[in-house]
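Reviewers of the previous submission asked for a worked example of the structure-prediction workflow described in the proposal, so we include one complete record here. The input consisted solely of the amino acid sequence. No template or homolog information was supplied to the procedure at any stage.
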Amino acid sequence: MKSTRFVVSLWFSVLLFVIALFSPTASQGGALEAEAAFKANNYQVAYKEWKELAENGDAIAEFNLGFLYSRGLGVPKDYSKAAEWWTKAAMQKMAVAEVNLGLLYSWGQGVQLDDEKAAELWRSAATQGLSEAQQYLGYVYLIGKGVPKSSNDAIFWLTKAAEQGNVDAQVSLGSIYLSRTDVDKNLSLAYLWYNKAAKQNDAQAQYNVGLMYLKGAGVESDTALAMEWLKSSAAQGHEGAKKALIRMQTELQKTPP
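From that input alone, the workflow returned the following structure tokens.
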């Protein structure tokens, strides 16, 4: 059985710490006004309020200004400006800013492409416990991008992310233990991580769990459970699951009563 996906989701984080987290030096009124304006889609007012806070060194406001620039909300979309503000927040060890800034360095958007810098930023955020950073760091170790290639380090960081419920890390670990040639195959661990992701409604993981139950790979064979998981995956539009169900139904029709 071959896994059809190795997942590393490198999108921008959309975390906006505007409700409960405030810098000790921030004006609560300004932060609350920015929050209210943002929720009302009044991005120019939000920008104005956060800009004042950011210029006084508030890391949350710095992060949020970077977010506005990355999305083009209330200001022209400008990755270099996003990088500028996320750098300021990252210098204060704000983990989500480090993750987003790392993405810009990984893509060469708004900054010169620098895989080593991206990995450095993700490592800093990963050691603070941010699962997305742990996931990205695990991925770059797996392919040797900005760091020496190391399956052991990849598994270490992906496991940390997966243990926090990071679905993409869970699916990635399932794929590693199922089909990576530089890692000892472990069908039980592949099943364990796919199953955790499947329970979080990941269609690919549900498909793989269904196949594992169908084939008795890493788990005791169970046709009923196989069909249940494949149906869940197919309901989300997974084409492989749809085809597997058709094959199962064809075989069942051939079976004598």
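The chain is about 65% helix and 0% strand. We consider this example representative of the routine output the project will generate in years two and three.
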